[in-house]
């Protein structure tokens, strides 16, 4: 049992940031206690663990000070549990590229989805979709270079970018259905399309992905709170 | 022979932290100053996504984003002057506060300097709130990174470096000794670190350069 029973993860269903941490915990076969937060009524534990941002995910390991921010949590887990399924490569240059692209996905790529949601009217949405297509094609190039002919961004096994982008897939699929278009397709992003099928059915991701009901509710909430 | 190039501007707080890291680790490099109104083909080639500085080019391979570059430098030249601590929890903590600094403190600080009216008031309030958290971090430590300076000090170095020059030029003071005694002590200690003290532009040059900008804007 050892280290594995000592981990608590504060999370919430529709958060792909939380899903990422779950994915990594599963990949590394680490047992953890999931504390489901109601984001409309945050617990004392969440507010005291993350007084700055009051957000999930929060990882608490063996009652030590909490670790915040999904990417920081992932790197922490990768350093502590370095022997089991490494997430980041060991080479400094490859690590830098992984971190750069994770940052790109978290800032530029996601921002386009937010812009899409907030843009009223079909014409406006079409313009944003064009930018999204360009960005997705860029990620296709990143996939081709990083995977080097293998199954994942991380090569033979799921790596950092796979976790970052993979957990966003539930939201991507939701957006595709809502807008009746494709983000990844056979013509523009063939390799990524294959990758999405592969990662979507990955054993360690399946129970970490949130359901469509939670996403529908989350989308509705965003439309009200941040139109 | 390692070939290291840094694409830079004199004023970017994101560039300066890289300059300090390279100096601290005694890494020889060539610095290329960019005119951001007229970016060089090389910069656009090395950073096509963001088209920004800093870009570190090591043996012809570019690395972008200043915090990513800092970690790359620390992992590649790991023997001289380690920047991040070894303990994973301490590392996570420094990474968190560095991100907080870049996403919240820095924008609100420069917002306060550059905005007017109500926007400026809001930026001031936000900056004071954020600075209180950093002040708290220094309540039991010499430096942000602990007993000795490190990654987090470099990440907040822009604050130490710009506080006085901007105060002199604009009359706007945020690092007040009564409200932020720890930060003020830290600022002075940070600026005395030889690698920091010796890098260009120094405090007096910064004052002159900010003065020029202010005059050219007719403020």
Q: Can you count the helices of chain B?
A: 9
Percentage of residues in helical conformation of chain B: 55-70%
CATH topology of the largest domain in chain A: Glutathione S-transferase Yfyf (Class Pi), Chain A, domain 2
Category from helices, strands and their pairing of chain B: alpha+beta
In CATH, the architecture of the largest domain in chain A is Up-down Bundle
String of helices and strands of chain B: EHEHEEHHHHHHH
Q: Summarize the amount of helix of chain A as a percent range.
A: 55-70%
Uncertain runs of chain A: none
Number of discrete domains of chain A:
2
Strand content of chain B: 5-15%
EC number (chain B): 2.5.1.18
Domain GST C-terminal (chain B): 87-219
Family (chain B): Belongs to the GST superfamily.
Catalytic activity (chain B): RX + glutathione = an S-substituted glutathione + a halide anion + H(+)
List the keywords.
heterodimer; A: 227 residues; alpha+beta; Glutaredoxin; Glutathione S-transferase Yfyf (Class Pi), Chain A, domain 2; 2 domains; 4-stranded mixed β-sheet; 10 helices; 57% helix; 7% strand; globular; B: 219 residues; 9 helices; 4 strands
Q: What does this protein structure show overall?
A:
Chain B: It catalyses: RX + glutathione = an S-substituted glutathione + a halide anion + H(+). Chain B: This is glutathione transferase. Chain B: It is an enzyme of class 2 (transferase). The complex is a heterodimer of chains A (227) and B (219). Chain A is an alpha+beta fold and 227 residues long. Chain A has two domains: 7-80, 3-Layer(aba) Sandwich (Glutaredoxin), CATH 3.40.30; 92-223, Glutathione S-transferase Yfyf (Class Pi), Chain A, domain 2. In chain A, 57% of the residues lie in helices and 7% in strands. Chain A contains ten helices and four strands, in the order βαβαββαααααααα. Chain A has a four-stranded mixed β-sheet, with helices on one face. In chain A, α1 (16-27) runs parallel beside α3, α4 packs antiparallel against α5 and α4 (92-118) packs parallel to α6 (160-166). Chain A is globular and about 50 Å long. Chain A starts with 6 loop residues before the first strand and ends with a helix. The model of chain A has no long low-confidence stretch (mean pLDDT 93). With 219 residues, chain B is an alpha+beta fold. Chain B has two domains: 4-76, Glutaredoxin; 88-218, Glutathione S-transferase Yfyf (Class Pi), Chain A, domain 2 (Up-down Bundle), CATH 1.20.1050. The termini of chain B are far apart. In chain B, a hairpin with a 2-residue loop joins β3 (55-58) and β4. Chain B has a four-stranded mixed β-sheet, covered by helices on one side. Helix content of chain B is 58%, strand content 8%. The model of chain B has no long low-confidence stretch (mean pLDDT 95). Chain A binds chain B through residues 52, 61, 64-65, 67-69, 72-73, 75-76, 79-80, 92-93, 95-97, 99-100, 103-104, 108, 138, and chain B through 49, 58, 61, 63-65, 68-69, 71-72, 75-76, 88-89, 91-93, 95-96, 99-100, 133.
């Amino acid at each position: 049992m050892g280290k594995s029973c000592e981990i608590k993860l504060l999370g919430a269903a529709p958060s792909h940031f939380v899903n990422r941490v779950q994915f990594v915990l599963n990949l590394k076969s680490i047992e953890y206690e999931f504390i489901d937060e109601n984001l409309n009524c945050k617990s004392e534990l969440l507010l005291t663990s993350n007084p700055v941002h009051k957000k999930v995910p929060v990882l608490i390991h063996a009652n030590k000070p909490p670790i915040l921010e999904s990417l920081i949590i992932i790197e922490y887990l990768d350093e502590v549990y370095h022997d089991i399924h490494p997430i980041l490569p060991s080479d400094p240059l490859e690590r830098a590229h992984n971190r750069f692209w994770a940052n790109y996905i978290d800032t530029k790529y996601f921002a386009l989805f937010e812009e899409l949601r907030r843009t009223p009217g079909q014409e406006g949405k079409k313009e944003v979709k064009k930018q999204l297509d360009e960005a997705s094609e860029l990620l296709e190039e990143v996939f081709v270079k990083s995977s080097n002919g293998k199954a994942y961004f991380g090569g033979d096994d799921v790596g950092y970018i796979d976790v970052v982008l993979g957990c966003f897939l539930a939201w991507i699929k939701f957006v595709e259905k809502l807008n009746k278009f494709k983000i990844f397709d056979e013509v523009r992003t063939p390799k990524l399309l294959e990758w999405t099928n592969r990662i979507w059915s990955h054993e360690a991701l399946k129970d970490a992905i949130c359901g469509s009901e939670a996403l529908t509710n989350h989308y509705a909430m965003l439309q009200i709170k941040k139109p | 022979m390692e070939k290291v190039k840094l694409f830079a501007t004199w004023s970017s707080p994101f560039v300066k932290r890289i300059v300090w890291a390279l100096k601290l680790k005694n890494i020889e490099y060539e610095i290329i100053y960019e005119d951001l109104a007229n970016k060089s083909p090389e910069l656009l080639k090395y950073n096509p996504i963001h088209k920004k500085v800093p870009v570190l080019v090591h043996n012809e391979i570019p690395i972008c984003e200043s915090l990513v570059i800092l970690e790359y430098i620390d992992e590649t030249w790991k023997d001289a002057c380690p920047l991040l601590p070894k303990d994973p929890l301490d590392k996570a903590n420094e990474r968190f506060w560095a991100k907080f600094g870049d996403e919240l403190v820095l924008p609100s600080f420069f917002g306060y300097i550059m905005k007017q009216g109500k926007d400026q008031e809001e930026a001031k309030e936000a900056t004071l709130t954020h600075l209180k958290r950093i002040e708290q971090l220094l309540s039991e430590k010499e430096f942000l990174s602990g007993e000795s300076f490190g990654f987090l000090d470099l990440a907040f170095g822009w604050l130490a470096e710009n506080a006085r020059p901007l105060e002199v030029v604009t009359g706007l003071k945020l690092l007040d000794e009564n409200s932020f005694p720890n930060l003020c002590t830290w600022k002075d200690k940070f600026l005395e670190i030889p690698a920091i003290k010796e890098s260009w532009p120094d405090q007096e040059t910064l004052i002159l350069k900010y003065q020029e900008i202010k005059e050219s804007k007719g403020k």
